[in-house]
């Protein structure tokens, strides 16, 4: 599969370090081989090192160094936010943020729910003879779970 995530004007990137960590930005100009000028709604246009950016598959059609209004309109027209939230990478980060925001009681409820789900999987695998789906530990100690 060919490589498709090139540094180019209009490429959407995720900031992976610094005070804008976790924000989506758009590359509006390439300064040199190490830095780009990035901009996004809610973020001041600034230069950023490529090491601080993780390129995404999303690209919007803009000209070099557009005005803020033009950039926002292009991002809304390209539906960048919904594309990001529907991608597997974006969903994974949303889940990570949601889990980080859990309090102790919510983590306890999550643990109980996982125990119930795992027990049901174990029960169904043992009932229908799908021993190959279970790990060695479950197979050898199956009598103690039922």
UniProtKB/TrEMBL annotation:
The keyword Zinc does not apply. One of its GO terms (molecular function) is structural constituent of ribosome. The chain crosses the membrane at residues 117-139. GO terms for biological process: ribosomal large subunit biogenesis; translation. InterPro entries: Rib_uL2_dom2, Ribosomal_eL14, Ribosomal_eL14_dom, Translation_prot_SH3-like_sf. One of its GO terms (cellular component) is cytosolic large ribosomal subunit. Residues 45-116 form the Large ribosomal subunit protein eL14 domain. Keywords: Membrane, Ribonucleoprotein, Ribosomal protein, Transmembrane, Transmembrane helix. Belongs to the eukaryotic ribosomal protein eL14 family. This is Large ribosomal subunit protein eL14 domain-containing protein.
């Amino acid at each position: 599969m060919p490589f498709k995530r090139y540094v180019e004007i209009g490429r959407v990137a995720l900031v992976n370090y610094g005070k804008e960590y976790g924000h989506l930005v758009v590359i509006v100009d390439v300064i040199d081989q190490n830095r780009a000028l990035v901009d996004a709604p809610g973020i001041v246009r600034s230069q950023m090192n490529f090491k601080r950016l993780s390129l995404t598959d999303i690209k919007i059609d803009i000209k070099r160094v557009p005005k803020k209004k033009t950039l926002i309109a292009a991002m809304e027209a390209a539906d960048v936010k919904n594309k990001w939230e529907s991608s597997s990478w974006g969903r994974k980060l949303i889940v990570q943020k949601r889990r980080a925001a859990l309090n102790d009681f919510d983590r306890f409820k999550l643990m109980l729910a996982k125990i119930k789900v795992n027990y049901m999987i174990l029960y169904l695998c043992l009932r229908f003879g799908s021993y190959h789906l279970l790990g060695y530990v479950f197979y050898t100690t199956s009598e103690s779970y039922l």
